[in-house]
Amino acid sequence: MSDTDRDIISEDSFYRKKMLLSMLIPGIFVSLMWLVKIAELMLDTDLSGYGIYPLEAEGLWGILFSPFIHGDFNHLFNNSLPLFFLATALFYFYSEVALKVFAWTYFLTGLLVWVAGREAWHIGASGLVYGLASFLFFSGILRKHFRLIALSLLIVFLYGSMVWGLFPGVYKNVSWESHMLGFFSGILLALWYRKEGPQAPEYNWISDTDEEIDEKVDENDTVPDQEGNEMKEKI
């Protein structure tokens, strides 16, 4: 086996491990969401009281617990797939800051809903979903990194219809405040962490003048000084 083949296998192994590690935390989080719903069903109980109720002390617990609580399995399923995909993309492409962004999106969205939401119980992980989608989209644009911009466009292609969830009255019995405030949290975090994590590569372009001088040096072992005289320099 050639060195090139070994390098290719080693690189493939690295990216495979990176992908699996990127799926670990999202997988655990989504699994906990399902376990909570199954436990709720088995115990024949309603955990909505552990959601966020704005401006009430008892509703503060919802900042911590509400993303794990869902109204029914349809609600849970609709949040599980996008959350797993978006969180995996976050940990894969933004591994240096992913944990901080995930945690801040989680708590900041919940806190804002507690402060500014309607007088109702707000449950579900959709605020977190909107926060992650917003961060991934705006962060790619702000960093001007072609790979991350491609990810931003993919987010628009897959989840562009989510924008309707930002407006009141479009969907019934949906916490549009969680969507809007999660989206807002993602923008704030994209701005805050724009200097951390992956950055656009910098290229050093060689001008025609530099190439001509290099050719002359190669041919004559000389380069002209500022007055046009030849200067000897061994290469």
What attributes does this structure have?
mainly alpha; disordered C terminus; two-stranded antiparallel sheet; Rhomboid-like fold; 63% helix; 2 strands; 3% strand; 235 residues; globular
Description:
- This protein has 235 residues and is mostly helical.
- The chain has a single domain (3-192), classed as Rhomboid-like fold.
- It has eight helices and two strands; from the N terminus they run ααααααααββ.
- The chain has helices at 3-42, 61-65, 73-93, 98-116, 126-143, 146-159, 176-192, 208-220, and strands at 222-224, 230-232.
- A hairpin with a 5-residue loop joins strand 1 (222-224) and strand 2 (230-232).
- Helix 1 runs antiparallel to helix 3, helix 3 (73-93) packs parallel to helix 5 (126-143) and helix 5 runs antiparallel to helix 6 (146-159).
- The longest helix is centred in the first third of the chain and has 40 residues, at 3-42.
- The protein is globular.
Radius of gyration: 26 Å
The named CATH superfamily: Rhomboid-like
CATH class: Mainly Alpha
The largest pleated sheet is described as: 2 strands, antiparallel
Helical element count?
A: 8
Order of helices and strands: HHHHHHHHEE
Termini Cα gap: 37 Å
Overall geometric form: globular
Q: Please give the CATH architecture.
A: Up-down Bundle
Question: Uncertain regions: pLDDT < 50 for 5+ in a row?
Answer: 230-235
The tally of domains stands at: 1
Instruction: Enumerate the strands of the largest sheet in spatial order, edge to edge or round the barrel.
Output: 1-2
Classification by helices and strands: mainly alpha
Strand content: under 5%
- The percent range for helix content is 55-70%
Return the CATH topology.
Rhomboid-like fold
Mean pLDDT across all amino acids: 85
